[in-house]
Each structure stands twice: as structure tokens, then as C-alpha cells.
Amino acid sequence: MELRIGVIGTGGIGRDHIRRLTDVITGAKVTAVTDINKEIADKAAKQYHALSFPTGEDLIESPEVDAVLIASWDPTHAGYVLSCIQAGKYVLCEKPLATTARDCLKIMDAEMSYGKRLVQVGFMRRYDKDYRAMKEVIQSGRIGEPLLVHACHRNRTHITSHSNDMTVTNSGIHEIDILRWLLEEEYASAQVLTGKQNKNAAEGLQDPQILLLKTKNGVQIGIEVNMTSGYGYDIQCEIVGETGTVRLPDPSALLIRSEGKHTHQIFTEWSQRFVDAYDNELQQWVNDVKKATLSGPSAWDGYAACITADALIRSRNSGTSVPVTLQRRPEFYD
Ligand code: NAD
Ligand code: ISE
What we know:
Elements: E1 3-8, H1 12-23, E2 28-34, H2 38-48, E3 51-52, H3 56-61, E4 67-70, H4 77-86, E5 90-94, H5 101-114, E6 119-122, H6 129-140, E7 146-154, H7 164-183, E8 187-194, E9 209-215, E10 220-226, E11 234-241, E12 245-247, E13 256-258, E14 261-263, H8 275-291, H9 299-318, E15 322-323
Helix pairs in contact: 4-5, 5-9, 6-7, 7-9
Bound molecules: nicotinamide-adenine-dinucleotide and (2R,3S,4s,5R,6S)-2,3,4,5,6-pentahydroxycyclohexanone.
EC number: 1.1.1.18, 1.1.1.369
InterPro entries: Gfo-Idh-MocA_inositol_DH (IPR050424), Gfo/Idh/MocA-like_OxRdtase_C (IPR004104), Gfo/Idh/MocA-like_OxRdtase_N (IPR000683), MI/DCI_dehydrogenase (IPR023794), NAD(P)-bd_dom_sf (IPR036291)
Pfam families: GFO_IDH_MocA, GFO_IDH_MocA_C
């Protein structure tokens, strides 16, 4: 039986996930869509022979929908996730789970009251083969204990509504999650450094921002989040251990020698960079939902990322390092 999925938000990634669920993933079909922009929802519904619903709540409650994928704007996520839990439906929520840790706690409380995991967060880098290989190297002990991390997250340009907080909650949140997953430990403190602003960024946008994190075991992490690199979409990550280092490779690209130059192409948009990871993420989620046991990033992971993001934002406002204080992890999420 195919899993019938309803997609909330038919913008950039929503449409790409609908295509993926239809053409790439096995065992699923998109039966329903919705968007506050009715025109684009209706267009996607027509293209994929799905129903178009007037609101996210109507879609969540529909008997035509077994599970929900949320791909609407960040501030709408928490409300829709809570409605999915209330309806007893599995939900894959694009990152971030919410825009504050307080809303993540509400989600965890609702899920624990329901009594079973229903929520997965779209931290898809965990499904990328190179990040997975990096984790194997760290766990093998080949580079000794990790000491330092150098990471960068460069976007070529940003949307006009991008804000200082979104640099953390919308973009840097990927590094917050993937480094916590790679190192298998929580953060102890957080700080944001800002400096000279890129004149190509929107007026008032602090860009780039340097996110400094220190883990409970003392691993020091520096992440450049740059929304206006001007040249491309570039994700880098290097872990420095006691006896060696491991580094995320650049995506494979042809090396071209011509016209007196040796060149290779760099991606320009995020949508080009983690295609296999999105495919793996969605296939695994569909398989897991059909077996009624989720294995992907949980509401706890969404919370841990958001509380770190909250601390980073407080640090940027206060100019000092601030502690990251997580609640005790409920056994439910072990
Ligand atoms: P987008 O603006 O292209 O699309 C979002 C869509 O949601 C828009 O069509 C908008 O009309 C719709 N929408 C907004 N509020 C809504 C509501 N209350 N109900 C229904 N629809 C609503 O943005 P996008 O780039 O596709 O991002 C969508 C989400 O996916 C964001 O949360 C973003 O953080 C996340 N995202 C994740 C990744 C990733 O790498 N995992 C990449 C891009 C975006
Ligand atoms: C976008 O929402 C994403 O999630 C992309 O993966 C990220 O790189 C980009 O900065 C975000 O705006």
C-alpha cells in the first residue's frame, strides 16, 4: 500500500519534495497539497493529481492523508506539527522544528502525551554520504579525539526577507545539528561575532556572522555563516583531531583545462548541493512510517538545535558568550 502524503507549502522545496515523492521515492504518493498562495497549490495539485486544500489544518485532518510533510515558512512549522500530533499523524517537518526552543518544548510535551514518536525534523545532512563517512572516521579513532571544528556555510545571495536571526535559525541551524550529530555531544556555550558588513547584503543585515560553539567536552567550533558569498553555495567542514583531521570533500565536479585555465564548477544554489541526501531522507522516512517506527532526527534534536540557536541570538544581542542550557533529555527520546 502506498503511503498517502499531504504537503503543506508548495514553494521551492515543497515542490521539489512533491517531485521526489512522486518520481524518486517508492511506496508513497502525494494525495494533497496546500499553500497560502492558492494559485501555486492548485497548480501543483493539477500537475500531480492531488487534492488542493484551503488550509493546512484541513489537509492534516483529511482522511486522504496518512502522513504530512511541512515545507511552509519557518514560523508556521510549530503550529502545524502540533496539529499533526493532535490528529495522530506522522509528520516530517522541514528544519527548523520551530523558531524558538519554547515551541519545541510544547511539541515534545504533546508528542510524549500522545505516547509515540510522530515527529521527524528535516535535518537531511545526516543522510549525506560524505558526512556519514566523516562520522565513521571520527568513531574509528583514526584522528584521535576531536579538538576543533572549522565549518562554513556560504550562500551566494539571500532572499529579501532574510533577517539577522535567520542566519542562525534558518541557515546555521544545519551546522548546529550536523556537528552535534557528528561529535555526539551537546553544546555548553555559544557566541556570535560580527564585524565588517558585506555591502552586497541587505541594509542592516550583519553578514557574515561567525557562530562560536563549545561542546561539553571542550571541542571548540567556529562556523562562518555567510549569506552573500557572491560566488556560489559552498558548504565546508573540517574536524581537527589529536592525530589527524577529516574534511568534507567538495561535491564531485569535472576538472576542465581549456583556454589557459584549469577550472571546475561550483554549485550556486542550495537546491543543487544535497540532492542524494534529500532522496535518502525521504525514502527512509516513508519506510519508517510504514513500519510505524521513526529513526530520523526527533523533536528532541529539533529542540537541541533551537535552544542553541536561541543562545546564539542572545549572544549576538548581548555581545558575550552565553551558556546553552538544555533540559534533561526525556527517556522517551532515548
Ligand atoms: P518558499 O518561500 O519557496 O516556500 C514556502 C511556501 O510556504 C510558500 O509558497 C508560501 O506561500 C508557503 N506558506 C507560507 N506560510 C504558509 C502557511 N501558513 N500555510 C501554507 N503555506 C504557507 O521557501 P522554501 O525555500 O521552499 O522553504 C520552505 C521551508 O523549507 C522553510 O522552512 C525552510 O527553512 C525549509 N528549507 C529546508 C531546506 C533544507 O535544506 N532542508 C532547504 C530549503 C528550505
Ligand atoms: C535554506 O532554507 C536551507 O535550508 C538551505 O539548506 C540553507 O543552506 C539555506 O541557507 C537556507 O536559507
